[in-house]
Amino acid sequence: MTAVQSTQGGKVFGLLKAKQELRLQEVNQEFLDDEKFSDEENLEENLTSFKEKFLEFDLNDEGEIDMMSLKRMMEKLGVPKTHLEVKKMISEVTGGASEAICYRDFVKMMLGKRSVVLKLIMIFEGRANENNSKPAGPPAKRDIASLP
């Protein structure tokens, strides 16, 4: 492979990423303009966070999280799932309409009131990252009576 081909591949990838990010930003704008979500706290910041998370887990860069991407995501989060469990999670998010999660469905899930398993796991992951500090010093002394 020549240097020209190598550079062109990088440019093409960059252009694809830029297009994808633009499409996701357009979806974010739809949610910002939607009256139903006007009372949502920190909507713009949340949408930016959702976009970053979605891009992180859209492993094939096709604008959706397919079954294998979701399975790898769950393993990365430390909660591995079987193919059947992953299929059920996708079905919960998409309402059974698709075998992959598009960004619009992803945002609806994250903003929605329903407690979809994937949403709970992602919220848990966010909190785990926030509370990643371990207590300093030795553990507190306990006596036999305080044990369960």
Number of helices: 6
Task: Return the domain count.
Answer: 1
SSE succession: HHEHHEHH
Give the CATH superfamily: EF-hand
CATH topology: Recoverin, domain 1
- In terms of per-residue confidence, which ranges show pLDDT below 50 for 5 or more consecutive residues? 1-7
Alpha-beta content class: mainly alpha
What is the percentage of strand-forming residues?
Answer: under 5%
Main sheet: strands, sense, barrel: 2 strands, antiparallel
- From the alpha-carbon coordinates, what is the Rg to the nearest angstrom? 20 Å
**Percentage of residues assigned to helices:** 55-70%
Shape assignment:
globular
- Could you give the distance between the termini? 66 Å
Topology:
Blueprint: H1 3-33, H2 43-57, E1 64-65, H3 67-76, H4 83-94, E2 101-102, H5 103-111, H6 117-130
Antiparallel strand pairs: 1-2
Helix pairs in contact: 1-2, 2-5, 3-4
